[in-house]
Amino acid sequence: MKSKFIKINTADNVAVAIENLKAGDELSIDGTAITLNEDIPAGHKFALKNLAEGENITKYGYPIGHARNAQKKGDWMNEHNIKTNLAGLLDYTYNPVKVSIDIPDRHLTFKGFRRSNGKVGVRNEVWIVPTVGCVNGIIGKLAEELRAETECKGVDAIVAFPHNYGCSQLGDDHENTKKILRDIVLHPNAGAVLVVGLGCENNQPDVFREFLGDYDHDRIKFMVTQKVDDEYEEGMNILRKLYAKATTDQRTDIPLSELRVGLKCGGSDGFSGITANPLLGMFSDFLIAQGGTTVLTEVPEMFGAETILMNRCKDRVLFDKTVSMINNFKEYFLSHGEPVGENPSPGNKAGGISTLEDKALGCTQKCGKSYVSGVLPYGERLDHNGLNLLSAPGNDLVASTALASCGCHLVLFTTGRGTPFGTFVPTMKISTNSNLAVHKPKWIDFNAGVILENEPMDKTCERFIDYVIRVANGEPVNNEKNGYHEIAIFKNGVTL
Questions:
Q1: Partner of 75 for a Cys bridge, out of 71, 140, 410, 493, CB 3.0 to 4.6 A?
Q2: What are the pLDDT digits (tens) for 51-61?
């Protein structure tokens, strides 16, 4: 029989409603009778005991804030009566924990594309990437014409990736733009890439070409529109040749140890930390046990749960890098006069998330229980297998672009509210509740809400592993079916 509520951890002093509960409902929790004092929406919390003003509210076994005022057993606990405990910068102490995960290597494979440099892609697409936003119209028209001419036969997609940057930027913003565009151009999910420049931009095409480093000159070509008479005729001539090369690529068996997956959540609700995020955590531990790689980002959504990650760092060097990553983002907030703890969006709050700690403790479950083996600055690429932490903001498209840019083949995106977008790699949407999956079948790819309906987590995870492998083999997810492919680059400084 489906339960009406869940107490996540034995130490918790709140429980979460699995369905809408009514004032006056009588519940029995741990042998204690509780009468609800008000209606409790699904995904929201209610008090299991009388709470004093200032007393910590505990969920997932950790404080998620404190009571603004005294509350009674059975009260609805939400953002109006819970206040974050977060403040400014903190000093952290390394208290390493021993991680023991007993998952056998099943020697699984997927069908991927082995590139000339040894890297592996899970898609074989033709991409058009601008060095500067001034040529966005041109690249869109080129992609449209090539799709019409070829019907994409022999490749998975033909996509242009417009963005707003590449000129009038200084310092870190300019470097970030160059790094993300470099990472896109070199990504192994592309079988061929045309880089289109204007000619007078800050991100000079010749300089950017050198910035790429070693690359496949047969599969990556450049066109500077100010230097050709007809950019459409020239562009199409180049693209036809690139397209012909890409159509010769074939999938081959690749060990699952070479799969790289990004972990992201957005439009989270009160079920995110109960269903979809723990499911991704179980999958992450499984993939890492096979020798593979997962990447967690959204640094501002680690605030309040960061010590859990810090203490799982394999060594002090990684711990120090994680501390810097966290405090650098806090300084970024504070330098703009913004508090570090006021993160939950209106949608998060409506779904049952009351504080940033509440959100963070659910968010970080996506990375399971494995050791942290790498910490990456924004725009840098993976060089360690296992669990990696990546510096990027929580914004869905910026963070997903960053995950793809660091080398992830696909992004696993959990959501309780739903979202249609996709970045430049397959962006799989995993719903936290079945209602969302039913009402948005063209957005949601996999429903983790069945966990609330008593499907065992390990059974759900087995189905999920099979589905992820099918996607790596080429089965399209909804953002690909819908043609939703976008990128967004992190910006912090001045625009000239």
A1: 71
A2: 999 999 999 99
Q: Which residue has the tokens 């703890």?
A: 341
Write down the H helix ranges in 151-219.
171-185, 205-211
Instruction: Identify the H or E element spanning 361.
Output: helix 356-363
C-beta separation of 426 from 480 below 8 A: yes
pTM metric for this prediction: 0.96
Are 329 and 391 a contacting pair, CB within 8 Å? Answer: yes
Amino acid at 21: L
Q: Please give the structure tokens belonging to residue 466.
A: 């099979």
**Per the structure block, which two tokens stand in for 227?**
């230097």
Strand order in the sheet with 76-77: 5-6, 14-17, 45-47, 76-77
Whether 340 contacts 303, CB under 8 Å: yes
282 touches 376 (CB < 8 A): no
How many whole angstroms separate alpha carbon 427 and alpha carbon 422?
5
Same domain, 159 and 296: no
φ, ψ at 241 (rounded to 5°): -70, -40
Contacts of 386 (CB under 8 A, 6+ apart): 288, 293, 294, 370, 371, 372, 373, 374
Q: How far is CA 30 from CA 33, 74, 76, in A?
A: 8, 14, 19
Q: Which of residues 49, 83, 117 is at a domain's end? A: 83
- Residue 340 half-sphere exposure, CB side, CA atoms within 13 Å? 22
As a whole number of angstroms, the distance between CA 310 and CA 305 comes to 9
Rounded Cα distance between 421 and 398, Å, is 12
Identify which of 262, 416, 427, 274 has the alpha carbon closest to the alpha carbon of residue 345: 416
For residues 127-140, average pLDDT: 98
Q: What's the structural domain count of the chain?
A: 3
Q: Are 403 and 288 within one domain? A: yes
